[in-house]
């Protein structure tokens, strides 16, 4: 298998999701201490490290850090520019992952490089919203990630592993609040 085939296999596996033990995740959340970002277990303390994220998800952790909110006055125009598809599936600043799946399912080999880039952005957005940093509904993805995908060469240089770990820590800390019922992170993918 060459490098491109291996990457395609890995992406297909990631989009397929994984089965999780939700009672185990709930039990781990009860052991999470937000003050130290560690699990307090009978055998001692442990945590999820940036190296774990790198090894498990094969994400870059040494690149430029993604910081700050990305805001667009017109998400429809942003989608049309970067995906060349106009959509009406907005929910605030989110879109349905199903819309991405339906509209970017297959690509012909004869399409232009520009169309291949649009398809690639849609697949990356699906990965972000469906696996790496899903919202609690697991059917929506935040459009704030789309402008970061404008330059695909630049995307490769970003430390996506750091963002995933920060999101996971954020969600674990939020889950320790008693009134929270769901967690949104790469721990809860299908």
TrEMBL record:
Coiled coil spans: none
Protein name, entry field: Aminotransferase-like plant mobile domain-containing protein
PANTHER family noted in UniProt: PROTEIN MAIN-LIKE 2, PROTEIN MAINTENANCE OF MERISTEMS-LIKE
Residue span, Aminotransferase-like plant mobile domain: 9-187
One Pfam family it belongs to: PMD
């Amino acid at each position: 298998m060459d490098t491109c085939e291996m990457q395609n296999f890995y992406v297909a596996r990631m989009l397929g999701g994984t089965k999780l033990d939700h009672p185990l995740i709930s039990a781990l959340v009860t052991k999470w201490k937000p003050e130290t970002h560690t699990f307090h277990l009978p055998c001692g303390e442990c945590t999820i490290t940036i190296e774990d994220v790198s090894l498990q998800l094969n994400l870059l952790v040494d690149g430029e850090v993604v910081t700050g909110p990305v805001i667009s006055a017109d998400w429809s125009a942003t989608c049309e520019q970067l995906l060349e598809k106009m959509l009406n599936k907005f929910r605030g600043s989110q879109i349905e992952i199903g819309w991405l799946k339906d509209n970017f399912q297959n690509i012909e080999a004869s399409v232009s490089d520009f169309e291949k880039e649009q398809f690639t952005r849609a697949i990356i957005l699906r990965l972000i919203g469906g696996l790496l940093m899903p919202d609690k509904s697991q059917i929506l993805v935040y459009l704030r990630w789309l402008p970061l995908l404008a330059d695909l060469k630049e995307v490769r240089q970003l430390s996506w592993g750091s963002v995933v770990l920060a999101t996971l820590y954020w969600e674990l800390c939020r889950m320790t609040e008693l009134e929270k019922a769901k967690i949104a992170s790469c721990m809860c993918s299908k």
